[in-house]
Design brief:
The complex is a heterohexamer, with two copies of chain A (about 200 residues), one copy of chain B (about 60 residues), two copies of chain C (about 220 residues) and one copy of chain D (about 250 residues). Chain A is of the alpha/beta class and about 200 residues long. Chain A has six helices and nine strands, in the order βββαββαβαααβαββ. Chain A is globular and about 50 Å long. The longest helix of chain C is centred in the C-terminal third of the chain and has 30 residues. The two termini of chain C are about 25 Å apart. With about 220 residues, chain C is mainly alpha-helical. Chain D has one domain. The longest helix of chain D has about 35 residues. Chain D is globular, with a radius of gyration of 20 Å. The N terminus of chain D is likely disordered. Classes of the chains: A alpha/beta (about 200), B mainly alpha (about 60), C mainly alpha (about 220), D mainly alpha (about 250). Chains in contact: A-C, A-F, B-D, C-D, C-E, D-E, E-F. Chains C and E meet through helix 2, helix 3 and helix 9 of C and helix 2, helix 3 and helix 9 of E. The complex binds protoporphyrin IX containing FE, adenosine-5'-triphosphate (2 copies) and magnesium ion (2 copies).
Chain lengths: ~200, ~60, ~220, ~250, ~220, ~200
């Protein structure tokens, strides 16, 4: 469903990679590896359409990715958490869903927060949360996420081991439902997937 | 001993009635409102704290 | 489409409320700047009356402008902007919502407080009305144009002041028509002409600016 | 613990809360007494001013409000200094409880001054040094309240607010001496113990009203501080016990 | 001690250079605000001459104030401020350095450009000199006092406008003496009195403000 | 040398921990563990003197930690990198050293950057660096760090495995020289230390 062909990335005057390509089908996980600075984040930003590749093409269900339809199928989680420090976890989750055109009731949101271990902190402004708790708020989005393509940039950062296991489970479930995922991480985490493809940069 | 000849004289304040009573009126109003808002605030706080306390004890019981 | 815009407005207003300071402080900035001028210039009533339209409008313009850097900066810094750009609807709509919220927080209150400040300058009732109307009609244009500036300077750390640099020249027509409307009323020429020009500016910029700003945001995100 | 009279005990909220509650009615009553006496003297007995006619009677509010606006600020700064130096919990609460009343007094001073200025000077507002500095004082109050409201952690809010109060305290002498330093429209000081330029009844009316405002401010501050205490100490046992019993 | 202050100044100036925009844009803001007034008020030369001291000073004050939010915010956000607070010397010294750097970037250029702008208002040579001198002497006080406001509002997201609220009341004396100095020169009364008061304010605030600001920073870091 | 006694931490209305104490001698590593939000960062901020404890005392060489002397012995690395995005790695390193009253020549700084794998990026503004490279710039400080007490809050975050090994080596060397370290991390990393003390929060 997701095909990348002959991608080339140039940042500044440095060619980070060239000739990168892959195809990913339903239920498959692409595990992107590489040293710090090898271009993993850059590749992900190409996949979500925010960074135009120097050359090469990316297609989703056979069509180029420059359309609203593609974005409706896409869920991206970057280095940054995309949460508002002034809002509470609950408000963040609801506002995020509303802005992404996803339906999410308050009950579902509360259940999601409980699942990520933030019960009792739903009404505390996010600026008071610990590093790992902030990351958990960002991850709570994934609990009710039904869109098929997940692109996750180092999702395990700052999480304790219980949360790492939980997240691995969520990703597995997504893949089992026939979803696709592209992921980077420096920690070795085992995820049950239809097929695990690895791509090494640099 | 009282300076005013009549009540209407008192109200007129020698032609400055608007200004004098404007000052006194607003002052009286503000000084009446302030304690009322404080009380309101206080009972609202107490009710909220009681609610929180009840929720807490309920959670602790569970 | 309207529900989306409403959702954006609701979120931004909630954020503004949460930051408490935001809601009142654009007004207070306005009040303080307006009050600074008599201090710098001296207390002659005649002189002050002549200054009033200019001072009120310049202050309104500065108060609006000061809140511009935060229009997108917070969303950018914490990654929300990326998410908005990835949502399956045109970014221009989201920006429209943000512009409206910005006006509700930083433009509307100015129009409401302006007549009170006008009293300090000893203005007549019609002049006060003209001040209120012109600020009411003109400030949406300031928010709209400002959004373009805020988007263009996003992520450039010099931001705050760079915005002023980009946006002020574009604000000048608004300023001239706005202050002109008040002036015309004071001198008895009738401010309707100026006001309708101001309205035209506002419509144009509310319709057009969010899309320009959205384009600028996409560039900033690359 | 010790038999010695212990000052710290009274600066502990648990002791201060009931104490404040008991004192409020007295302050209210005393304030009302002073107010009635002052109004009676000032509004009914005092003679007409030979320059300003009856309009001068605004003085019975204007001057007490102006004095209190400055005095309350000084008291807040005092509490702030105590709080920063000894880290007592009560001081921050007192400063926060006083601020709205102080702002109100500053507002009343401006309002009554403006109403006075129109008949006397022909303008609601002039940019004179005293008037301006009183306006600054109002802004300082508002700034203090905005700052403390913007910080959610109360201990941090107390410390930051206290610092602001101490920095802003330079404004008080400026207001007070502004009439001396700049030659302005506003009247100079006329209360002088040795030789007062005012009729005795006027002077007494003004002083009684000042006492009334003073007692009123204390009562308001005490009322407010009680709410603040409940809010801040809501996790202590004494508040829990109090709230559980208080079914009002 | 001096080497530390020098190191701080050097770093901050380098950062300002690197952000390019920063260096020029305080000046441009100043220029634009000063030039807006004739637009808002109309072109009568007599009126403008009377306005000039007030407008120049208000604009200088606003230009300085606008750059305040960034004084500590960047250092706070990226963790540098923690490191500075942990360094084995009093934080007040570091803040002194930052205040001086702030003045070099946002105060000094204003003094240099002010006489040129004064020409627009048809000021005499002595008046121009008085403008330059008063801004030169007065702006360090603005930077110093501003540092306190910036430190107090650090980390509060409503920041930018809250600073204005806290700082402007304290700026008013500087404004009055500054504009007063120019005014006194124009009317032939001699501005020395005002200027020496201004100098006193500057010395007091440069000496005292950094320590108050340092205390506020420690609170913000808790 | 570092003693903490009966520390209590209250954030907002939540008591995160109480009665925490430890002593740490030269060459020892304190490894702080706990779930997300259990108060590890808060404890570290108490140790560096930025967060006053609700109750309890902290002493360094027998004296309370409220002195310039303590800060002269202390090196702290937090969740945030404390680098300026506009400056280059080299400038960041030099400016940081100067402000911390440490002597660092340009040659030493360049060598340190090379050691953390940033050779060739010394003159690129940090905003262009990848997440892991930014962290490396922050870590480059440790290369020439001679102060005895290191306090590191999740130093391994965002690093690839080569960098993790390098950092573990640097910390071991510091301990072998007789330094002390307090560290949190959710990743299991082996560090050779005189003695490894563990403290679990929450
Ligand atoms: C908004 C306008 C005004 C403000 C902000 C203001 C402010 C103040 C302040 C702060 C004081 C107390 C300072 C002191 O006792 O030395 C004061 C006292 C006083 N004010 Fe005003 N004032 C205003 C208008 C007026 C007007 C229009 C008048 C009368 C024409 C007036 C007459 C007085 C008098 C007689 C005192 C008492 C002075 C004394 O006995 O010490 N004020 N005012
Ligand atoms: N303007 C530029 N000039 C030179 N190099 C640049 C420029 N902008 C970016 N780069 C380089 O591009 C790379 C960006 O890497 P990217 O963020 O994609 O890495 P990554 O694989 O995600 O690394 P990490 O594991 O640390 O997150 C970095 O090596 C950076 O140095
Ligand atoms: N105002 C507040 N009210 C309630 N809880 C608060 C408040 N401020 C902070 N907290 C709580 O204090 C804790 C702070 O934890 P801290 O940052 O020390 O955790 P940590 O152990 O470093 O976690 P992580 O592994 O995620 O970095 C969090 O659980 C947070 O929810
Ligand atoms: Mg990356
Ligand atoms: Mg932590």
């Amino acid at each position: 469903m997701l095909e990348a062909d002959n991608l080339e990335c140039v940042r500044g005057e440095r060619r980070l990679f060239a000739g990168i390509g892959f195809t990913l089908a339903a239920g498959e996980l692409l595990y992107l590896q590489g040293k710090n600075g090898s271009g993993k984040t850059s590749l992900l930003r190409m996949l979500i359409g925010l960074l135009p590749p120097e050359s090469g093409t990316i297609r989703w269900r056979g069509a180029a990715i420059k359309s609203d339809d593609y974005r409706a199928d896409l869920c991206y989680l970057g280095h940054l958490n995309a949460i508002k420090e002034e809002l509470t976890p609950l408000e963040n989750l609801l506002a995020g869903a509303r802005l992404a055109d996803a339906r999410l009731s308050e009950v579902e949101a509360l259940a999601a927060l409980e699942q990520v271990g933030l019960a009792g902190r739903e009404d505390l402004a996010c600026k008071y949360l610990s590093q790992g708790q902030k990351r958990r708020v960002a991850l709570a989005r994934l609990v009710n996420e039904k869109r098929p393509l997940w692109i996750l940039d180092e999702p395990f950062v700052a999480l304790d081991s219980a949360a790492v296991d939980w997240l691995a489970g969520i990703i597995s479930a997504h893949l089992q439902r026939g979803g696709l995922a592209v992921m980077t991480t420096h920690q070795r985490v085992d995820i049950a997937a239809g097929a695990l493809r690895e791509l090494r940069l640099g | 001993m009282i300076h005013w000849a009549s009540f209407s004289d008192f109200l007129a304040m020698g032609g400055y009635g608007l200004y004098v009573w404007g000052s006194f009126g607003v002052t009286a109003f503000v000084m009446a409102i302030e304690p009322i808002t404080i009380r309101r605030n206080r009972s609202a706080t107490i009710i909220r704290l009681q609610r929180q306390l009840r929720a807490e004890t309920r959670n602790a019981a569970q | 489409m309207l529900t989306l815009i409403a959702a954006v407005i609701k979120r931004d207003l909630k954020l503004a409320m949460r930051r408490q300071a935001d809601m009142v402080s654009a007004i207070f900035f306005f009040i303080i700047v307006v009050s600074l001028f008599p201090l710098g210039i001296g207390p002659e009533a005649d002189l002050l009356r002549k200054l009033a339209p200019g001072v009120l409008w310049v202050a309104a313009l500065l108060a609006t402008m000061l809140s511009l850097p935060r229009l997108f900066a917070d969303d950018h810094r914490d990654g929300t902007l990326e998410q908005l750009a990835l949502a399956p609807h045109p970014l221009g709509l989201v920006v429209t919502g943000k512009v409206i919220a910005h006006w509700l927080v930083s433009g509307l209150p100015l129009a409401l407080i302006a007549p009170v400040l006008g009293l300090q300058f000893d203005l007549s009732t019609e002049a006060l009305l003209a001040v209120t109307l012109s600020i009411l009609i003109g400030t949406p244009a300031l928010s709209g144009i400002g959004a373009i500036g805020a988007a263009l300077t996003l992520g450039l750390r010099g931001g705050g002041v760079l915005i002023s640099l980009l946006v002020l020249p574009l604000y000048i027509p608004v300023l001239i028509f706005g202050a002109g409307a008040v002036d015309a009323t004071v001198t008895g020429l009738g401010g309707e002409g100026h006001l309708s020009l101001l309205a035209a500016l506002t419509f144009a910029s509310i319709g057009f600016a969010p899309w320009a700003a959205a384009a600028a945001l996409k560039i900033a995100l690359e | 613990m010790t038999d010695r009279f212990n000052l710290y005990r009274f600066s502990s909220p648990a002791t201060f809360y009931p104490l404040a509650g008991a004192m409020i009615p007295y302050f209210v009553a005393v304030s009302a007494l002073f107010g009635i006496a002052g109004l009676w003297l000032g509004m009914l007995v005092a003679p007409t001013d030979f320059q300003q006619g009856e309009g001068y009677r605004i003085i019975f509010i204007h001057v007490p409000a102006s004095w209190m606006s400055m005095f309350i600020y000084l008291v807040m700064a005092f509490w702030a200094a105590i709080g920063l130096a000894f880290n007592t919990r009560l001081s921050g609460m007192m400063a926060q409880a006083l601020a709205p009343t102080g702002a109100l007094m500053a507002f009343l001073s401006l309002w009554t001054g403006a109403l006075w200025g129109k008949p006397m000077w022909g303008a609601w507002w002039v940019w004179d040094a005293r008037l301006t500095s009183e306006l600054i004082l109002l802004f300082l109050y508002i700034g203090y309240m905005a700052l403390t409201a913007a910080i959610d952690d109360v201990r941090r809010a107390d410390k930051a607010g206290g610092l602001l109060l101490l920095v802003g305290v330079v404004n008080i002498p400026i207001i007070y001496f502004s009439v001396k330093w700049w030659n302005t429209l506003h009247q100079g000081s006329s209360v002088n113990l040795a030789k007062s330029s005012m009729a005795t009844t006027m002077l007494w009316g003004m002083l009684l009203m000042a006492m009334c405002f003073w007692m009123y401010s204390i009562a308001m501050a005490l009322m407010r501080v009680r709410t603040i205490m409940l809010e801040r100490e809501r996790h202590t046992d004494w508040v829990k016990k109090l709230i559980a019993g208080d079914e009002k």
